[in-house]
What does this fold into?
Amino acid sequence: MVAQITTANTNPTELLLGGTGGTRIIIPDQSAWNVDVRFVAKTATGANAAIQNFTGVIVRDGTSTTYAAGTSDAAITEVGTTNAAFAVAADDTNESLKLTVTSGAAGLLRASARIQLTQIDY
It folds into this structure.
């Protein structure tokens, strides 16, 4: 799966499947996912880009969705300066995996995330 968004917001902006106006990454009830997320972002101008990778587990049990980061979360790597910040969390309201990016630099920042999942249901 690929989620993406373009933002100039200094508050976290959610990446969606299909980009702006897209859909959230909903986890089915009574499921657990091994989640591998690889973020990349680039500013609209200049040679500024950033990457960060996350690995973790997300589980949904009825109306409760929880994300736990794995041991392989990596630090952000930048070329130039984006001041981007990436995050992976559970969205308990929407029962989904929530991927966000914050633009710390002036101007537009485009972000994309490749999401790999391994699912188990009960």
